[in-house]
Amino acid sequence: MLVSRPSIARIASRKLFAGLDEDALREVLNAATERHMPAKKNVTECGQRPHSLFLLREGRARSYILTESGSEVVILWLVPGDVIGLVSLLPNPPTYIASASTVSACEFLVWERDTVRRLAKAHPQLMENGFRLALQYVGTYMKRHAATVSKDARARLAQALLHLANNAGEVESRGVSIDITNEQLSSFSDISPFTASRLLSRWEREGALQKTRGRITLLAPEFLMIA
User: How far apart are the first and last CA of the chain?
Assistant: First the structure.
């Protein structure tokens, strides 16, 4: 993938590329391929051998695991700049520990594992950045786990909505819209679908948000800050 100077300037802010000079960044980007994927398409599957590293460039995706009963547990909501398949940087990587799927139409930069390993050897900063990203994702999940034992369902749902609004929301004239189903939101908040639906309906009656199929629009985010 040949990249222009403006493209490099736009992409350089991604955390995966922090600290790389322009020549190194150009080399890394030129080794990538672009991949467009429609909504609701699997990117990786839990238990699969790592084959590629994906940088989300446009769109929204989610990382999740399936329980023994087949229920989906959302681990992370992924936005532009996030990376899928960081284990591809390792010399003897374990299998993917979670699956990833597109929520909306997405555009990825993709490096095959042999390619990204070669680049990481040539530019050790890539490995360091990948480790920092992995720690960031673990830290995000640790905060979420702490909330399950220290906050009630109402507070966890409000926290999840505000997090999604800040990191994955689309600003509109009437508020901030989030593409997510009730089931996905309940999983991301670690509460039951019934409780999530009940609280969302209450907040909708109170004018804090509006629900449509597969989308929630926050009309008064400040209301959730005191929820």
Answer: 47
Residues of the chain with pLDDT under 50: 4-6
Same domain, 161 and 205: yes
Residue 96 one-letter amino acid:
Y
Note whether 129 and 165 are same-domain residues: no
**Can you give the pTM of this predicted structure?**
0.82
Do 137 and 193 share a domain, yes or no? no
Spatial distance between the Cα atoms of 20 and 24, rounded to a whole number of angstroms:
6
Q: Check: CB of residue 144 under 8 Å from CB of residue 157.
A: no
CA 83 to chain CA centroid, nearest Å: 8
Q: Cβ neighbours of residue 77 under 8 Å, at least 6 residues apart?
A: 60, 62, 103, 163, 164, 167, 168, 180, 188
Q: Are residues 117 and 45 in contact, defined by beta-carbon separation less than 8 angstroms?
A: no
What was the pLDDT predicted at 226? 65
